[in-house]
TrEMBL record:
Role description: Catalyzes the hydrolysis of N-formyl-L-kynurenine to L-kynurenine, the second step in the kynurenine pathway of tryptophan degradation. Kynurenine may be further oxidized to nicotinic acid, NAD(H) and NADP(H). Required for elimination of toxic metabolites.
Gene3D superfamilies in alphabetical order: alpha/beta hydrolase
E.C. numbers: 3.5.1.9
GO MF: arylformamidase activity
Family: Belongs to the kynurenine formamidase family.
Record's catalysed reaction(s): N-formyl-L-kynurenine + H2O = L-kynurenine + formate + H(+)
Pathway: Amino-acid degradation; L-tryptophan degradation via kynurenine pathway; L-kynurenine from L-tryptophan: step 2/2
InterPro entries: AB_hydrolase_fold, BD-FAE-like_dom, GDXG_lipolytic_enzyme, KFase_ver/fungi-typ
Record-given protein name: Kynurenine formamidase
Start and end residues of each BD-FAE-like domain: 59-236
Pfam families: BD-FAE (PF20434)
EC class: hydrolase
UniProt motif (HGGXW) ranges: 65-69
C-alpha cells in the first residue's frame, strides 16, 4: 500500500490521500481516501474511528466514477475537483472524509490489450457482476476498517450512478447476481445522489442509435438483454430494503449533457415515487450545467452535493431529532417538502472544452476537435 501523501500542488493543500487495496485479484481493486490534515501534526484524521462513531453529525461522502464501465482514464482521482469545492463550502463541517472507488473495467476498443502478454491482474476484461462486486467489496472494506455504518452519502456519476443504485437494490439482489455474501458486509447508505445516471440500460441503447452504446453495454453485461433489464434500477420491482433505512434519494442532471438523455432520470423518478417508508425523493433535473464529463472535471458535481443533499441531511436530522428527542428512530423520517426547485447556488464559469465523449464513442471527435482545446493537445482516445 502506498504511503499517505499530500496531494499535488494543484489540489487542495488541506487534504491527504491514502490509496488502499480492498481486493487482491486485480490492480484496479483500490480506493482512495481523502481526509483533512490535522492542524497540529499534519497527519490524517482518518484513523480516528472513535471520533466518527461518536460524532453523529458527520457523514462520509463515497464516490463511484463513471466511464461506461470501461474507460481507464476515468479513475478515483476524478473526485478531486469536487472535494476541493466541498472543502470550501458552507457544509464542509458535515463531512468526515471522502472515499473514491476504483473497480475492474471492461475492455475498451481505444485501449486494446493482448491477453497473451498482459498479466491477469492488469487485464481489463470485466463482465457483470465484476464491477458491482468490487463496489460491494470496497464498501465492506470501509465498514470493517472505519465503521462507516449507514452514515454515508453514496454518489455516482454516469455508470457510477448505475452501480450506486444497484447497491440500493439490496443484498438479496446483489447475491442473486453472483456477489458472494462475504462481500456484502456493509450497511446500505442513508443518503444517495445519482448524477447523469444510467438507470434503464435497454432504454439508453434504444434512444441512441450510435453503435457505441450497444457496444459498451454488451461488453459490460453480455448480449442477453434480459440481464440488462434485471440489472436496470428503473426496472427493479422492490427497493424495500433501502426504503426501511434510507433517508434521501436524489437525482441530478445537467441541461447540457450530450451523452445521457433526460429519459433516464424521468424513468428513475417515476420508480422512486414507490419507495415508501421515510425516503425523501429529490428531483434535481437540470440543476447542473456543463457537458457530461464537465460535471466532474470542473467540480460542479459539488453543487448537487452541497446545495441539495448535504443541506437536506441537516434538515432531516434536525426534524428527526426534534420528533424523537429521547430515542432516534432510524426506520422512518417525517414527511417533509423540501423546496429544492427554489434552491440554487451560483455555477462557476467553466472552461470551454470538448467533453471526452470517447468513453462512450471512441473516435467520435477528430483530432482537430481535441487539439482546439489547446496547442499541442492530443486526445488520449484517438486510435
Amino acid at each position: 500500500m502506498p504511503p499517505i501523501e499530500s496531494l499535488s500542488p494543484n489540489d487542495d493543500s488541506n487534504l491527504l490521500r491514502e490509496d488502499v487495496k480492498y481486493g487482491q485479484e486485480h490492480d484496479l481493486q483500490t480506493l482512495s481516501i481523502y481526509t483533512r490534515k490535522s492542524p497540529e501534526n499534519q497527519k490524517p484524521l482518518i484513523g480516528a474511528v472513535s471520533e466518527f462513531t461518536t460524532n453523529s453529525s458527520k457523514i462520509w461522502v463515497i464516490y463511484i466514477h463513471g466511464g461506461a464501465w470501461r474507460d481507464p482514464l476515468v479513475t478515483s482521482s476524478c473526485i478531486l475537483p469536487t472535494t476541493n469545492r466541498l472543502l470550501h463550502s458552507s457544509f464542509e463541517s458535515k463531512i468526515f472524509s471522502f472515499a473514491s472507488i476504483n473497480y475492474r473495467l471492461s475492455s475498451h476498443p481505444s485501449f486494446p490489450q493482448d491477453s497473451s502478454s498482459v498479466p491477469k491482474h492488469t487485464y481489463r476484461n470485466a463482465k457483470h457482476p465484476d464491477h458491482i462486486q468490487d463496489i460491494c467489496s470496497a464498501l465492506s472494506y470501509l465498514q470493517s476498517k472505519y465503521s462507516i455504518q449507514d452514515r454515508y452519502l453514496l454518489v455516482g456519476h454516469s455508470c457510477g450512478a448505475t452501480l450506486a443504485m444497484q447497491i440500493l437494490m439490496g443484498k438479496e439482489f446483489l447475491n442473486s447476481c453472483g456477489v458472494p455474501y462475504e462481500s456484502l458486509n456493509f450497511n446500505l447508505p442513508k443518503y444517495f445522489l445519482g448524477v447523469a445516471g444510467i438507470y434503464d440500460l435497454r432504454l439508453l441503447r434504444d434512444k441512441h442509435p450510435h453503435p457505441a452504446y450497444n457496444d459498451f453495454l454488451t461488453q459490460a453485461f453480455g448480449s442477453n438483454e434480459t440481464v440488462w433489464d434485471e440489472v436496470s434500477p428503473a426496472k427493479f420491482p422492490n427497493f424495500e430494503e433501502f426504503g426501511k433505512s434510507g433517508k434521501i434519494l436524489a437525482f441530478a442532471t445537467s441541461r447540457d449533457d450530450e451523452l445521457v438523455d433526460e429519459k433516464q432520470i424521468d424513468v428513475m423518478l417515476e420508480k422512486a415515487q414507490n419507495f415508501g417508508g421515510g425516503v425523501v425523493v429529490q428531483n434535481l433535473q437540470n440543476i447542473l450545467k456543463g457537458a457530461h464529463d464537465e460535471i466532474w472535471k470542473t467540480g460542479d458535481l459539488a453543487d448537487a452535493i452541497d446545495v441539495t443533499s448535504i443541506k437536506s441531511i441537516a434538515v432531516i436530522e434536525q426534524i428527526t431529532n426534534e420528533s424523537t428527542p429521547n430515542k432516534k428512530d432510524e426506520t422512518s423520517v417525517p414527511s417533509i417538502d423540501l423546496p429544492i426547485s427554489s434552491v440554487r447556488v451560483p455555477i462557476l464559469p467553466v472552461m470551454e472544452t470538448v467533453c471526452c465523449v470517447a468513453s462512450f464513442m471512441p473516435g467520435y471527435f477528430s483530432g482537430d476537435a481535441y487539439r482546439s482545446i489547446g496547442a499541442g493537445y492530443h486526445s488520449p482516445y484517438e486510435r
